[in-house]
Each structure stands twice: as structure tokens, then as C-alpha cells.
Amino acid sequence: MCDDYTAEAEEEALRKRGLSRREFTALGAAAALAGCAGANGTAADGGELVERTVQVTTSDGVADAFFVHPAQGAHPGVILWPDIAGLRDVFKIMARRLASQGYAVLAVNQYYRNAPAPVLGAFSEWRTPEGREKIAPMREAITPSATTRDAKAFVAYLDQQQSVDKARGIGSNGYCMGGPFTVRTAAAAPGRVRAAASFHGAGLVAEGDDSPHELLDDTQAAYLFAIARNDDEKSPDHKTILRQAADAAGVPAEIEVYPADHGWCVADSPAYDATQAERAWSAMMRLFDGL
């Protein structure tokens, strides 16, 4: 998870690049991913993408989200859960890239109960005292039951859209704190959510019956658990527990510790590793092929 332990790895990564946190932030996530397919609003087949900010009614209020999909046809829906810094430009870029591959992507603001997105402009803001103070009460509002309620609403929203193919399954991908939310999404709508990808997910294995790993038996999805090496160093038994839980539930699960640190998939994170991020992205695309 994004704690002092992972912050040390981030500082080391920046030192190797010869950058301060301020200099890295100034580079911007958009520049880091400018060459990605779909980042400019074009689908892989040359068609256009359509994007807009939408409002999704949940049992707790109205959530804002970024919805992007190919202009033509109906496609599998995907719910994208951002990391601890929330929905911001880097996740919109990632949503566009995924949409360019033929998906209708709903990138959600998990902090909607407190504020519209963006709550923070970049991951670096989370590392400041002001950023942590701002996020702290917002995180407290996101309980396991709240996430489950939200997931049901997001699935229902996608199923109301003409751009979503209801004959295909829905996928979910999540990063950092969003990682376990993908499992909760699969458990919230087991008849619809058929694939879930967690990248450097925090809290996948916890105490209690509502731990994400305990919910696998309540799902019908295939999984990708891409684990950061420093998360694995801190909790080396979690990958084994996830494997045992997936096998006991009879659900397919690809579980791998990547040679990269927590946050490696997100371009505005100091731990971003382009090579390993592409490997993880390719693994996700193989998983979503089954939707």
C-alpha cells in the first residue's frame, strides 16, 4: 500500500533518475503516456472515441465518473478504480487507451461522497501533509459495504448504455486501494462481472470474512493479481493465500510478483516502470479478451 515503506522505494527511484519529487511532478503524466494508443481519442481501428463526465446515482448519492468508449458499436464494459490519489488525468489517459482497444470504460471517482474529481491533481500531492490530510476523511467513508453498493450502481449504469454490449461480461481494473475494489465489484454483481485485474493492490488479504480474498468464492470472474515486489517483501504470504483462495473457489487467477515497486503501473507515480507496466497491461488485455 501507499505508506512510508513504499515512499522509500519512490525516493530511491527518483534518485536513480536524478529527479526531485517536484521535478518529477512537473514532467506530468500526460507527457509520460503521450505515445499510448488511444491517448489522442482514436480507437485501434482508426475510429473515434467518445468521452464525457457522467453522473451515476448510487444508494449513497451521485458519483461523478469519466466514461469513454468507441463511437461506433457496443463493447464490453469496464469499471476502472483509481489509486489513493483518485480520478485524475493519468487515469483518464489509461481509460482512453483501454477504450481504444474496444471497451466502454467507466473510470470512477471513489471519493464522490466528499468531492468531485479531481480531488488531487497528481500522485505527488498525496505525499504532502496537505494531501494526506485532505484524503484521510474521504478514505474513511469508503467502507467495504460502501464499495459494494457503489459497484452495483456502476454495473447497472453500464448496462443502461447503448455503447455497452450486454451479451458480454463486464471487467474491472484497479490500482493500489482500487485493487481490492475489483474483487468487491465481482462479488457485487457475480452474474455480470467476469474479469478483475488488480495492480499493486492493497488490502487484498485482511482479517475478517469481508476480506477480498474471502469473497472469491462468491464470484464468477477470472482474476489477475499483479503484485509489487516491495509489497511482496512486506507480506510474502499474501500471494500464497490468494492462490489458495482462488483454487478453493474454483476461479482462474494469474498471480505474479512483478520486478517493480508499488505504483509501477501509474505514470505519475515515482515508481512508474514503463517496461513492467506494459507487461501488466498486456496481461490485463489477455484477461479481458475473455469478456
TrEMBL record:
Locate the Dienelactone hydrolase domain: which residues?
A: 64-289
Q: What is its EC number?
A: 3.1.1.45
Pfam families in the record: DLH
Matching entries from SUPFAM superfamilies are given as: alpha/beta-Hydrolases
Q: Does the keyword Hydrolase apply?
A: yes
The UniProt keyword set, sorted, is: Hydrolase
Give the enzyme's main class according to its UniProt record, as a single word: hydrolase
Q: What are the recorded GO MF terms, alphabetically?
A: carboxymethylenebutenolidase activity
Lineage: superkingdom: Bacteria
* Name under which the protein is recorded: Carboxymethylenebutenolidase
